[in-house]
Design brief:
By secondary structure, the chain is mainly alpha-helical. 70% of the residues lie in helices and 0% in strands. The chain has 17 helices and no strands. The protein is globular and about 65 Å long.
């Protein structure tokens, strides 16, 4: 199968999608500053965090398939447990040291919290051992309950889910690449979106009756359908020749503007609570954004493709892992040292954001010096 437009993408990267990574990560970071709700009751970022997570899972699937098309994997590769594990490890190895660092940095908070609620030393050490046994190999996502998934650096549940999905991703990449008919890909896309909705309903009921209370939001058993959706979107996108819409920049300007305004209106209007209907709408909008901006042709795409946005987009996963430990340490320290007011809460938010930027910059510079840059679609 030929993908005419792909040859015009340097290094197999789509700049607008990379730039969007920073915007989506900031939705998540700002939502995690939820202590501000105590001082500003109207502080509400809508469904931004949940949507940002959906976008990243879908973008990861898109990036995996894009890389497979570009490099030809796994055309001549035999799919074995070994190759699958190596594939997953290759995607996570650049971010893994930072993940471990942020995990171990938060052990003191776990110990302090355990002592504060009266846990015995033996119980605390046992729980610590069990949680680390899952977290160190990035397998906490296998047991979708908050006591395991949210241990230490809570946001790393995303990394764990993605790592688990990446272990089996080569199987789906090879399978999906055999689909020849565009109509079959469209049906496959509809199936994946339907499974996102169906699993939300089923898993919610299971979660209400069992200890697996993160089946809906934080389990690889459901998030895999977001990744598969991204894979199918990539296959559909790159069956469209580059010259098909030549000279129709106005069309992309219009499409990008409409989908951006519609997404912003949807994200910031409505209740904060998530439900099965919201999950479905989130997935559809995320798919539309990825597909529309993957052409990289409109005026918003050009803004997202600027060097500052590319740099910030490439640092998104570093920001993701760095910001949460800073929040967990900063909030109780500020409360202990100061009598909190609304202005001091804002100052604390700026401190957290500045500290996150500083920490991210240090990690980014270190990684740039010692390794290749983090793949924007990984």
């Amino acid at each position: 199968m030929n993908y005419p437009y792909l040859q015009n993408i340097p290094d197999g990267k789509i700049k607008s999608l990379n730039g969007l990574r920073f915007i989506m990560i900031m939705f998540i970071v700002l939502t995690h500053l939820n202590y501000l709700e105590d001082f500003f009751p109207n502080y509400f970022l809508g469904r931004g965090a949940a949507f940002g997570v959906d976008y990243f899972f879908m973008l990861s699937g898109f990036g995996m398939m894009l890389s497979a098309i570009k490099k030809g994997f796994p055309k001549n590769t035999r799919i074995t447990p070994g190759t699958c594990i190596n594939y997953a490890v290759s995607h996570v190895k650049k971010i893994y040291p930072l993940y471990l660092l942020t995990t171990f940095c938060l052990i003191p908070i776990y110990i302090y919290s355990s002592i504060k609620i009266g846990k015995s030393v033996s119980t605390m050490l046992l729980h610590l051992f069990v949680k680390l046994s899952f977290c160190i190999p990035l397998l906490q996502g296998l047991i979708p309950c908050d006591q395991i998934q949210w241990a230490f650096n809570s946001v790393a549940w995303f990394l764990s889910c993605l790592f688990i999905i990446q272990i089996i991703a080569p199987v789906f990449i090879k399978l999906f690449k055999t689909v020849r008919k565009t109509s079959a890909l469209v049906l496959l896309l509809v199936f994946c979106i339907c499974m996102i909705s169906l699993t939300a309903v089923v898993f919610k009921k299971i979660g209400e009756r069992t200890f697996l209370n993160e089946l809906v939001y934080g389990s690889p058993y459901r998030r895999i359908f977001y990744v598969l959706t991204g894979m199918v979107l990539c296959l559909l996108r790159f069956r469209i020749p580059q010259n098909k819409y030549a000279g129709k920049t106005w069309l992309f300007n219009l499409a990008e503007t409409i989908i951006s305004l519609a997404a912003l209106f949807y994200l910031f209007v409505g209740r904060k609570e998530l439900n099965c209907k919201i999950y479905t709408i989130n997935a559809i909008i995320a798919a539309l954004i990825i597909f529309t901006f993957s052409f990289d042709k409109g005026i918003i795409s050009r803004l997202l493709s600027t060097l500052p946005m590319q740099t910030l987009g490439a640092a998104a996963m570093y920001i993701f892992l760095v910001h949460y430990p800073i929040i967990l340490y900063s909030v109780p320290i500020f409360k202990r040292l100061f009598t909190m007011t609304s202005w001091l809460a804002v100052a604390e938010a700026f401190f957290i954001l500045l500290s996150t930027a500083t920490g991210t910059f240090i990690v980014w510079k270190y990684n740039k010096k010692h390794t290749k840059s983090f793949h924007p679609h990984s």
